[in-house]
C-alpha cells in the first residue's frame, strides 16, 4: 500500500461516478476541504482494495455512500472524511497514527470512536450488550459526530440489506428498530428515524409491511381530491390574512400506522381517517397568526392543541400542533412551524452543522442533546453496574414526555408517569434528597403522586428528611434512581462501618483486649495482607457477613505476637449489641418469624447481606446455632423507631362484610395493612392471613385485642407463633 502521505492532486477524470457525485454534494465546503475529501477516498480505496460487499460491489462504495448521506446534512469536512475511512482501522492495515498524520487528530478520534461502536451487536433492546451500549453513549457524549456517522452507516446498511441472508436481515432490522431509530429520535433526527423505522419494518415483517403499504396507496388514491381541496382552502385563507406560508400534505408511514394499530388498538381505517398537513412560515410570530387563521377556517377540536414552540420537546423539537374538524367530517391534523424549526425537526442535532463551531451557537436540538449527554456522563460516573446504567438510559431514550412548571416558571420535561419525587431530583439532587411533600397546582400531595403535563409543581423540603429504599418504587427517571441508590450505598457503608466496629470490639473484648490496644503497624500489616486499603473496609466487611468478627479478632491478636489462648479471657458477661432498627443498610429482618421490637432476638451473619435478625424462638434458630461463629448477640435498644412487618392469622365466621369489619378494626388500631389472603375457606368459616405494619409487640397486642372484639372472629394470633 502506498504511503498515505502521498498527496498528489487527484485527477477528476479517473474518479468513479459515485465519488464525483460525492464531490458535487460537498460543494458547500471550501475547495481545499473538497480536495481532502477526495484524498480520503483515495486512501480508503487503497486500504480496502480487494474487499467486496455481499452484493459484489467494491467495499469502498459503502463508506463513500455513508459520506454522501452526511453531506446531505451539510456536515463538516472532518465528519465526511471520517465517514469515508470509518472501517479502515478495523478492516485494513491502516493505523491510527497514519490517519492522524494525514488527516489530523480529530479525524483519527472520530474513526476510532466509530470503530469501537462497530464491534457491538444487540439482539434486542432488553438484551443489549450493556457495556457496549454504555461505551456508545459515552462516545456520543465526547463527540456527537461519532453517532451521526454510525447512524448514517446504519441507514446505508439498511438501504442495501437485501444482499444479507434472512436471519441477518431480521437481527439487523430488530437492532435498528430497538436501538438506532430511538437514538435518532432522541437526537431530534426525525427524517433519519422515519427511514430507519420503515426499512426496519420492511425487513423484519415483510408481509405486514406490504399489506399496510398497499392499503396506504389505495387510501391515498381515494383521498387525493379531498387532500387537494383542504390544501387549497388552507393556502387561500393564509394568503387572505397576508401570511406567507407553504402548505404540504403529510402522509403517515407504514411503521407509524403499524405501531399505532398495535399500541393504541386502533383499526387501519381509524388511523387513515385523518388528513395531515404541515404549514411552514417565516417567523415564530407568524406561527401563532397562522394558527388563528386555520382556526378561523375550520373549528378546532377541544383539548387537541399543543404548543411545542413555547415548550419544546426534550429533543429540541418545536412546532404548534392542532386538530381541526374538516369539511368531510374527518379530523385534520396541522403542524405549524418556521423553516428553521422544520429543519431542526427533520435533522435535529445535524441541522446547520456546517455553520456551527464548538464555541458558536447551537440549535435547540444540539443544546438539548448536550444537556442529555452531560446528564448521562454524570449518571455513569455514579453507577458501577453497566446494566443499571442502561436501565436508567432506557427511560430517557424511549420517553413519552410530560412538561411541568417550577414556581419560577421554568419548564422541566420528564418521562410519562414521573412522580413529584422525580421532579424534585430533576430540579437538583439536594432538593430530591431532602424532599418531604409537594404542592401540585397549590394542592399538597405525597411525593409518589404521578404528574401530568401543564402542572405547576413546588417541592417542600426539610433538612432532616433523607432518602429511603421505598423511594426506588416511586421514581421512573434515571437521575432520581441513580441519586437514591448512591445515597443508600453511602448510608449502608456508614452503618456497616459503625456496626462492624461494635462487633469487632465485642470479639476483641472477649479476648481481653481492644482495637486501641492493637499497634498501628500490626493493623496496617493485617490490612495489607487482607488486600484492604483502610480499616473502614475491614469493619464494613465484618458487618456485611464477609468476615467473621471472632476470627478477625484472633488473627489480630496473633499478629500482635500472642496466641489467643495466651490472652486472658474477659471474665464479665459479654454485653449484647443494641439495635434501634434504623441500621437498615446492615440489618434485615427475617421473613420466617418477623421479629418485632420487644421480642428476644438473635442475629445471624449472612455473607453479603449483613445481619439477619430472627426471634430467639424461631424454629430456624436451632439450625443457625450450628454455626456459632456467625451468631451475633443482639437486643433491641430502648428507643426503637419505625414500622415492622408482622403477620396475623385470623379465624372468622364466613359471612358478607366480615373482611371489611376486620380491616376496620386493624385500621382503628393505627396499623397499616400491606396484604391479605384467604388461607382456607368453606361455607361456614374462613382463615385469613394479614400482613401488617406495627411499631412493636405492644402495638401488635393492641391490634389483636381490637380484632377479637369485633364479634366475627373465633381466633386471632400472631403467625408464626
UniProtKB/TrEMBL annotation:
EC number of the protein: 3.1.7.2
Domain TGS: 400-461
Reactions catalysed, as given in the entry: guanosine 3',5'-bis(diphosphate) + H2O = GDP + diphosphate + H(+)
ACT domain location: 647-721
Keywords recorded for this protein, A-Z: Hydrolase
Residues annotated as domain HD: 59-158
CDD domains assigned to the protein according to its UniProt record, in alphabetical order: HDc, NT_Rel-Spo_like, TGS_RSH
Pathways involved: Purine metabolism; ppGpp biosynthesis; ppGpp from GDP: step 1/1
InterPro entries: ACT-like_dom_sf, ACT_dom, Beta-grasp_dom_sf, HD/PDEase_dom, HD_domain, NT_sf, RelA/Spo_fam, RelA/SpoT_AH_RIS
The protein's role, per its UniProt record: In eubacteria ppGpp (guanosine 3'-diphosphate 5'-diphosphate) is a mediator of the stringent response that coordinates a variety of cellular activities in response to changes in nutritional abundance.
Family: Belongs to the relA/spoT family.
Protein name: guanosine-3',5'-bis(diphosphate) 3'-diphosphatase
Species of provenance: Dyella kyungheensis
Amino acid at each position: 500500500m502506498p504511503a498515505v502521505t502521498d498527496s498528489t492532486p487527484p485527477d477528476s477524470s479517473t474518479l468513479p461516478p459515485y465519488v464525483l457525485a460525492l464531490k458535487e454534494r460537498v460543494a458547500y465546503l471550501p475547495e481545499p476541504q473538497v480536495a481532502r475529501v477526495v484524498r480520503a477516498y483515495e486512501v480508503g480505496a487503497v486500504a480496502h482494495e480487494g474487499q467486496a460487499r455481499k452484493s459484489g460491489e467494491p467495499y469502498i462504495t459503502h463508506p463513500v455512500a455513508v459520506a454522501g448521506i452526511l453531506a446531505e446534512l451539510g456536515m463538516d469536512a472532518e465528519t465526511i472524511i471520517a465517514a469515508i475511512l470509518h472501517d479502515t482501522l478495523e478492516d485494513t492495515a491502516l493505523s491510527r497514527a497514519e490517519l492522524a498524520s494525514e488527516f489530523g487528530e480529530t479525524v483519527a478520534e472520530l474513526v476510532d470512536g466509530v470503530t469501537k461502536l462497530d464491534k457491538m451487536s444487540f439482539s434486542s433492546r432488553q438484551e443489549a450488550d450493556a457495556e457496549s451500549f454504555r461505551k456508545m453513549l459515552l462516545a456520543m457524549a465526547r463527540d456527537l459526530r461519532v453517532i451521526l456517522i454510525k447512524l448514517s452507516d446504519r441507514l446505508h446498511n439498511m438501504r442495501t440489506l437485501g444482499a444479507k441472508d434472512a436471519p441477518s436481515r431480521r437481527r439487523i432490522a430488530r437492532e435498528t428498530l430497538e436501538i438506532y431509530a430511538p437514538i435518532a429520535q432522541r437526537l431530534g433526527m426525525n427524517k433519519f428515524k422515519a427511514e430507519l423505522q420503515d426499512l426496519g419494518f420492511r425487513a423484519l415483517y415483510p408481509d405486514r409491511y406490504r399489506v399496510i403499504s398497499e392499503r396506504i396507496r389505495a387510501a391515498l388514491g381515494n383521498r387525493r381530491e379531498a387532500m387537494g381541496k383542504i390544501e387549497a382552502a388552507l393556502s387561500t385563507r393564509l394568503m387572505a390574512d397576508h401570511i406567507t406560508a407553504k402548505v404540504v400534505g403529510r402522509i403517515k408511514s407504514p411503521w407509524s400506522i403499524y405501531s399505532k394499530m398495535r399500541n393504541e388498538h386502533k383499526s387501519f381505517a381509524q388511523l387513515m381517517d385523518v388528513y395531515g398537513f404541515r404549514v411552514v412560515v417565516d417567523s415564530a410570530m407568524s406561527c401563532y397568526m397562522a394558527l388563528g387563521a386555520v382556526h378561523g377556517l375550520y373549528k378546532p377540536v377541544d383539548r387537541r392543541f399543543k404548543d411545542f414552540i413555547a415548550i419544546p420537546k426534550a429533543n429540541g423539537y418545536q412546532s404548534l400542533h392542532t386538530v381541526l374538524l374538516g369539511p368531510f367530517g374527518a379530523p385534520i391534523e396541522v403542524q405549524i412551524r418556521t423553516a428553521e424549526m422544520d429543519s431542526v425537526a427533520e435533522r435535529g442535532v445535524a441541522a446547520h452543522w456546517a455553520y456551527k463551531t464548538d464555541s458558536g451557537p447551537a440549535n435547540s436540538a444540539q443544546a438539548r442533546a448536550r444537556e442529555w449527554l452531560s446528564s448521562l456522563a454524570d449518571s455513569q460516573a455514579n453507577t458501577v453496574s453497566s446494566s443499571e446504567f442502561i436501565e436508567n438510559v432506557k427511560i430517557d431514550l424511549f420517553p413519552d414526555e410530560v412538561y411541568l412548571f417550577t414556581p419560577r416558571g421554568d419548564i422541566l420535561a420528564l418521562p410519562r408517569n414521573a412522580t413529584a419525587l422525580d421532579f424534585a431530583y430533576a430540579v437538583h439532587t439536594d432538593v430530591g434528597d431532602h424532599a418531604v411533600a409537594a404542592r401540585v397546582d397549590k394542592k399538597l400531595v405525597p411525593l409518589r403522586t404521578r404528574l401530568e403535563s401543564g402542572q405547576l409543581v413546588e417541592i417542600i423540603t426539610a433538612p432532616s428528611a433523607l432518602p429511603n429504599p421505598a423511594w426506588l418504587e416511586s421514581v421512573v427517571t434515571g437521575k432520581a434512581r441513580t441519586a437514591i441508590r448512591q445515597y443508600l450505598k453511602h448510608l449502608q457503608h456508614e452503618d456497616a462501618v459503625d456496626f462492624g466496629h461494635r462487633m469487632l470490639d465485642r470479639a476483641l473484648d472477649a479476648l481481653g483486649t481492644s482495637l486501641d490496644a492493637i499497634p498501628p503497624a500490626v493493623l496496617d500489616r493485617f490490612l495489607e495482607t487482607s488486600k484492604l486499603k483502610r480499616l473502614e473496609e475491614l469493619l464494613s466487611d465484618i458487618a456485611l457477613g464477609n468476615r467473621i468478627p471472632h476470627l478477625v479478632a484472633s488473627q489480630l491478636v496473633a499478629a500482635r505476637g500472642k496466641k489467643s489462648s495466651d490472652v486472658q479471657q474477659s471474665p464479665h458477661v459479654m454485653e449484647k449489641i443494641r439495635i434501634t432498627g434504623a441500621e437498615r443498610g446492615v440489618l434485615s429482618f427475617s421473613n420466617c418469624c418477623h421479629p418485632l421490637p420487644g421480642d428476644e432476638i438473635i442475629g445471624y451473619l449472612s455473607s453479603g447481606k449483613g445481619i439477619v435478625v430472627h426471634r430467639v424462638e424461631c424454629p430456624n434458630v436451632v439450625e443457625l446455632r450450628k454455626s456459632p461463629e456467625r451468631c451475633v448477640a443482639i437486643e433491641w435498644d430502648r428507643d426503637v423507631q419505625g414500622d415492622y412487618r408482622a403477620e396475623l392469622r385470623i379465624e372468622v365466621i364466613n359471612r358478607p362484610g366480615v373482611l371489611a369489619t376486620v380491616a376496620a378494626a386493624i385500621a382503628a388500631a393505627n396499623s397499616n395493612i400491606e396484604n391479605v389472603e384467604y388461607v382456607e375457606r368453606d361455607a361456614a368459616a374462613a382463615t385469613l392471613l394479614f400482613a401488617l405494619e406495627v411499631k412493636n409487640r405492644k402495638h401488635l397486642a393492641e391490634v389483636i385485642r381490637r380484632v377479637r372484639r369485633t364479634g366475627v372472629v373465633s381466633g386471632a394470633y400472631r403467625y408464626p407463633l
